[in-house]
Amino acid sequence: MKASILAVGTEITNGQIVNKNAAWISAQLNALGLKVTMHVTVPDDRPLILDALALAEKQSDLIFVTGGLGPTSDDFTRDLVSQWSQRKLVYHEESWQHIVKRLGSRGFQAGQIQKQQCYFPEGADVLINPEGTANGFTFSLVREAGSASPTSASAPSKKVFVLPGPPREIEAIWNLHIQSWMQENTRHVDKVITRAWDTIGVGESDVASKVEEVFADRPTGIFLELGYRVHLPYVEVKVSFFEKDLALWQSWLAKMDALLGEITIAKDFVDLADSISKKTQSIDFAFYDYVSGGYLQHRLSPFLKSHAKYSWKQSDDKPLVELFQHEENFLALLPLEDDKALLLFDYMGRRKQMVIEAPMKAVTLGERRKQYMAEMALAYFSQI
Predict the structure, then answer these.
(1) CA 197 to CA 149: how far, in whole Å?
(2) Which pLDDT belongs to residue 53?
């Protein structure tokens, strides 16, 4: 089962905002073992939106459309979905009552401009939006044999979900309506499993050449996909295959563990910063960074937003190790040399001290060294 995600909005194509919705929806689909084949972003342009819908229909079994369901003149996604699917728009009184109630609870009166949000393709199921006025909708696209489509002549039975643009509203509709449908209707799907290794300290080409050697004699005619992603200071290695073939690939996965073990920091998309945030969130914890130039804080901050008991201190000064002799529940990254740092940490009475040496020695790789030392500090602390 393949999925496409179509985002509508000139504010995305002109760079005003980033399309976070596609990434979020893809993460939900990947968790279900589904393959996302395409992200398409188009401006508020009627012909381009129709072309994008036709392309998604050709490529996918599931089609997700986001944006363009508002009350203004540039919100015409529903009109084009109606034209593409050859379903006329019909009025939905419950959506009008939803708008009236939601706006009224905030002291506003619904106007005629909101009425356009109450029309949906005939036969579609309306997806009530608990976080906004724009309800989504879903339907099955079935082309009758021999029928002419204005945009496509693709195979039948495509499931279409049309959602508003704000991320919070998409997540709310997903949790309320879509998640249960997805779980029920993907049970029969041969799911794709992806195993991943976050390696550090070795270049992408060096890692890739070793991995390719491991799979050089793999069976032919059976789906297996190798992938690589550089997200400094990591080189991520990914191996994807169908769940039904897991037993077949187990020996190859064991070879990968042996090959990459010494340079692997985390596996299967585990984020060390997230793990450490969860580990320390119930205690008063202090972070001291005199090495990474803020990179350590950059990595941890997104996960520490709900952590009320942590503190930060970072500086270019060189503190004395003795300052931490009696401190508890802390992590300190202290400078030794350009390519070396001292890591001290204490967690619930368990205390460790070690030297981190970066393999990047060139003067021009100073930032890479800082990233490496911060990530290694996270890695060592996560093991305690």
Answers:
(1) 45
(2) 97
